[in-house]
Amino acid sequence: AALTVRFLTRRFIGEYGDMEFIYSRNLTVDGREILFHIWDAPNSQQTEDGSSEEKRIQWADSFVLVYSICDRASFNILPLKIQFIKAAKEGQSQEKVPIVIVGNKRDLHHQRVVSSEEGRLLALSLDCGFYEVSAAE
Questions:
Q1: CA–CA separation, 3 vs 113, rounded Å?
Q2: What is the reported pLDDT for 89?
Q3: Which UniProt keywords apply (predicted)?
């Protein structure tokens, strides 16, 4: 949520509850006006049968999966999530679904447990984009 709010408003708010939100905002990107609809769902907002996750996947055109560089578990679940997304989206069409992996909390390098190289290699192996950022900075 912090990364989404930072992207949309350029402000950093450090603490969020475990809530799901849909944000809408017009932004100018490369000189073009683009309407963004962002469904920001924390990882813990899943049902056991995956129906909420399936609904979000069908709703979206592209995906940004964020993990904390300070939390190995948040990184380790990415391959399964990406496989799930690709099976649901690419199974319906021949188009490649845009997926970006983002390592957050780059400013907390002293607490890092997932290296930048691991993130890059995972993204490369799963044919995804990769960035490492700090919502705080």
A1: 20
A2: 80
A3: GTP-binding, Hydrolase, Nucleotide-binding
